[in-house]
Every structure is written in structure tokens, then in C-alpha cells.
Hints:
Its main location: membrane. This protein has 3 helices and 50 strands.
Amino acid sequence: MTRVLPYSSSRKPFSNWNSPYTKTKSWKEGTDCCWWDGVICDIGTGNVIGLNLSASLLYGTIHSNNSLFSLHHLQKLDLSFNDFNNSQIVSQFGHFSNLTYLSLCSSDFVGRIPLEISYLSKLVFLDLSGNYDLILETTSFKKLVQNITQLQELDLSFVNMSLVAPSSLMNLSSSLAFLKLVSCKLQGKIPGMSHLSKLALLDLSNNHLTLETMTFEKLVQNLSKLREVNLNDVNMSLVAPSSLMNLSSSLASLKLEHCGLQGKIPDKVFQQPNLQLLDLLGNEGLNGSLPRHDWNNSFQSLSLSRTKIQIHLEHDFINNLRSVETLDLSACNFEGSNLELFGRLTQLIELRLSHNNFSGQIPSSLQNLKKLLELDLSHNNFNGQIPSSFENLQQLHVLYLQNNNLSGEVPSTICKLKSLQILDLSNNSLNGVIPQCLGNFSNALSVLHLGMNNFQGTIPEPFSVGCSLRYLNFNGNQLRRRVPLSISNCKILEILDLGNNNIDDTFPHFLETLPELQVLVLQSNKLHGLVKGSSTNYSFSKLRIFDLSNNMFSGPLPADSLTFKGLEIELVKIQTLLTTIDLSSNKFTGIIPQSIGKLKSLKLLNLSHNRLTGNIQPSLGNLNNLESLDLSSNLLVGRIPTQLANMTFLQIFQVSHNRLEGPIPEGKQFNTFDSSSYEGNLGLCGFPLKNCNSEKRQQPTASKEGDSESKIGFGWKPVVAGYGCGVIFGVAMGYVVFKIRKPMWLVRMVEGKRRRKPRRSNN
Length: 763
């Protein structure tokens, strides 16, 4: 949120950063193309010299014979932020001999960047970033830096450059002013780049790079025009913190997150006259103390989170931060109840004080922070009630108060925060009734997490039409009665967790109308009745997590009715999503559906503690990715299929307390299971139980389902690993969906890493 933008990039005058729209709608055959949206013509000749189709909702493949390549006079070409559907960057892009500006960023290009790009010798600006399956090989990069000698701005972020030696950076054009190589899989030592005398912005973050003291000192001391440096996650363990003493007078932004810096930080760092942003997050070996006086007055953003720098929370320290807009002092070993001092920092936009030992009540002085957009007081020891004075923080977008000792009722005044987009009050001792207004007080609310408290009463009823919720979690309270029908108004809801309550209801079939729902957890309630078939097209089409365990559902398992309008959905389209099914501890009856064996990506299957009968399906042996299989405490009969020995990733296997008989399969993972996996089956033999002697081993007969298999149930749907099952991830995994820093309201929830390295699916 900081407004530090010291470097003026030439990308802005040409690229369109507004909302996407179809520019080509204005293109009419027979009209002058120079008047078309996104087309720029030379006034004298009428030739097309510029084409700006950025964010134009374009979709499809660009082939080598595309008419685009007939525009020989092009000087500027911007195709960024479209979807070219895994197109290659064809060699014809290198034939625009007059091109000075080329942007193909974030448009789903894949494959190798052709050598012909290096033919664009007049390029001043090149941006191929955000195409996660692009590959730049050593030869192409060497030719690029050798031939394009006028280049001023280069952004290859997220392009795979793992084969490019960092030493190649020494050959970059001396005219370069802007260099971004974020998450390029570069590995090795950062070379000296003192020849880049015009460099204003350098970003080499999130690679596997190392940096030595001498190289760093030359970088930040000798490059007189350098304004922004981002070396997050670069290994700087050999760089002495004293190197930070003599920063270039022009340097305005320095980001050194998780760089392994060790030793005492010099006072002079905080006295640099022009430094506006300093980020030292995660350098746990960095120590020393902050100077009490003579700070520079231009600081706008400061992060000392997860360092061992001693901070004395007193008036002098607060006075040094009067102009700060973003302040991150999380995990800085603060104690006590002197939080009220922060109420004097009236310019604050973001305040993060999580993972400290603050205690006492949250001070009302924080209401003075009228500009605040994000407040994070989570993971402390605050007690008492949530201050009703928070209603004065009218600009607030994000409020984190989770993992404290807060008690009492949630004040209804919190519903006056009309701009609120994320509200997390989980893991406290809050009680009483959830304010009904939380269901409809803000159409901007995206995340509402009230889990692990002592709330009673019912789930708020009035979720309004146009609801923007994507994450809704009431897990671990004492809520009763029904799942409100109005939740179906939240059409973009992705995660719904109502587990561990006292909800007494039948299965809420209306949830199948939520087109984006990926996670549904209803475990450990008092739900009952049949899980009937779906009534809508593509019901639960994106569901990835399906946990109905520990309820009182009865009847046949929700089997393989993957149908809509009488047509079978192609299983191949959903197999990559399904990883966990937990239907344990219910009253399901009947046989295990053979169709489960088609869900090839399944990692956890728990059908234990039901009343299932018949054989264990041999088709389960097709689940080559399965890590945990629990069929215990049922009424299963027959033998354990030998096909199950093919599951080489199986770590947990439980069939105890059934009526199984015959030899236990041998080899592979079955040599690792102990007797507890089989107890309560008196007819079983073989390792690790009694010897089977000379009993002849036979292939078990596959269960014949045919007409006996249930037609009831909305089917096995895609699930994310471990949710609600405790094997891989916990419930908090749901927050990963929102962990993006910009725009502001998206959540950073995975502690210790605030940036996610994105990966685009090919699907």
C-alpha cells in the first residue's frame, strides 16, 4: 500500500491498466483502421505503427501465418493480459524490424522463447513476464543481450531461466534502467553489474541466488541512479550488515526479506536521508537495536518482522515513525499493554503487530487511525471485548484478531465497517449470538472466519443477494438448527466450513447451486437422512473437499451419479482434482461403489465406522496416488484384493474390525503395516499375523454391483488434500486461496511467507 514509486516506467503511456474489454468490437470492415480502438497510425504515411490490445479479452492461438505479422511498420505491440491458450511465441515475432516496444506479459504463452526475438535490435522495452511455462535458454538470452543494445526496460519475471548462468547478466546493455527477473529459477552467484550506470530498478527476488559483500556494496553504493532494489530470498548470509551503512543517496526502496542476514544492524541504515521503504522481514539472525533519535523523516514503509532487532516501544520510537504508512513489527517480541502509543501514527494505512506477546485490552486509541486499511493484531494475548470504537475505522478493509483471548459478544457496531473485506475473529473465547447483520452488512466482505469460539444460537440468516463471500468458516462453535437457505445467494463462495457444531438438519442440497464451491465441510454435526441425487446441471462441479464425517447420514453411499440431464460427466475431467473423501462415522449402508477406482488422484479415502457390506472392491488398486485408506469398523467380507499391493504410496491402511478372511497381500507397502491394521478379522492370515501355511492363494472375486449399486447420491467430487482429515493440511489451508497481497483485500495467511509464487494451471 505504500506510495513509494520513485522510478517512472515507460510502460504506462502505452499499456492499458483499466478493466478488460473487447477493443476489437470497434473494428469494422470497410472503415479506416486508424480510427479503430487500440490502433495507432503514422500521420504522414497512414501505416499502422502501434497496436495496443492489452487486456482485450482475446482468446485463441497465434499461428505463424497470422495477419498480425503483415504489419511490417509496427513500432509498438502490446498483447499483454490476454489468453492465447498455450501458444508458442513464434519466430515471426522477430521480423518486426522497427519494433521498439513489445509486451506479451501474462497472456498464457508457453514453450521456448525463439532466438529470433534477439533480432529486434531497436527494442527499448521488452516484457515477457507472467507466462509461467515459458523457457529462456542460454543461447537465446546471450543473443538477446548481445544484439538488443538500446534496451532500457526488461521484465522476464516467472520465465524459466534455470539454464541461464547469472554471469550472463554482466553483458546486459549499459542503457538498461529497469530489470525484473522475479521467480526465474536462476541459480548461482550474482555478478557485478557496475556497468549498468543508468539502472534505476533492480528486482532479482525469489530465485536461488547468492550475493557476496563486495558485489552488494558496489550495487547499492556506486549505482548513483538506483532507486528500487528487491533481493527478497537471495542468500546474503555472507554479506555483513555493515554494508548497509553507505547506501546510494538516490536509493528509496530496499527489500531484503528472508536473505539470511546475520549480525548487528548499523544505526545509519535508519538515518539514510531518502530511504522511504525498508523491508528486513525474516532475517532472524539480524540483531542490534534501533537508534532513538535522528531518524530520517521520509520513511513510508518499515518491516522488521521476525528479526532480533531490539525495539523499545516508547515515545521517541513512535515520534520517529510519524510519516510511516505501512508498519510491520510482527514477531518482534513485544510484551505488555502499551499498544496505545500506535494510536499516534495517524498516517498509517497498514499496521501489523501479530505474533507478539501484547496483553490487556485492545486500546481505544487505535480509533484515531482513520486512514487504516489493514489491522493485524492476531496471535497475541489480548483479552476483554472487541472495542466498539472500531466503528470509527471506516476505511478498514482487513481486520485480523484471531488467536487471542478475546471474550464477550461481537459488537454489532462492527457491521458499520462497510468497506470491510476480510474479518477473522477465529480462535478466541467469543460467545453469545453471532450478530445477524454479519450476513449482509457489506457486499465487499470476502472472508468471514469466526471458527473456534463459543458462539451459540443460529447461523446468521440474511445472506443478501450479491453476497461477495468466498470463504465462510463457523467451525468449532455451538451453533444449532439449520444451514440457512440464504447462503445460496453467495454465488462466488469457494469454501464453506460449518463443521463441529450442533446443526440438526438434513443434507443442504441447495448448496449444489453454488457454482464456485470447492470446499464443503459439515463434519461432526447432527445431520441426518439420505444424501440424495442432484437436481441441477453441473451440481458441485468444482467441489474439491467433501467431508460429511461424524454425522448420522444413512442409506447408500453417495456413489457415482456424476450425471446431469441424464448424461454422464467425463470422469477424466475431474480426476486431477479429487484427493480426499471422508464419509466416516455415519450410518451409510450397502457396498463400496466400484467407480471410486476411477478417481486416480485420490490421496485419502476414509469410509470407516459405517455399516458397509460386501467385498473390498479390487478397483481400489487403481488408486496409485492413495496415501491413506481406512475401511475399518464396517461389515466387509471376503479377501483383501491383491490389486491393493499396487498402491506404492500407501502409508496408512486400516481394515480392522470387519469380517475379512484369507491371506493378506504381500510385498511393497503391505510389508510395512503392523497387526493393528487387521485386528478384529479372525479369518485373516499372513504377515504380520499368523502364517497361512500352504493355503492356496486365489484372486478375490470382484464385487458385482450391477443393479444393486445405489443410484442415490450426487457423486464423488474433487477434493483438496487433507482438509478435515488431518493427514496433510488443516482447515486453515482454505486461506491459501486468498493469499495475494494486491489488491489489498486478499489474504496473507500462511505465516512466514507473505508472497506466493504463482503457478498457472494448464487446465
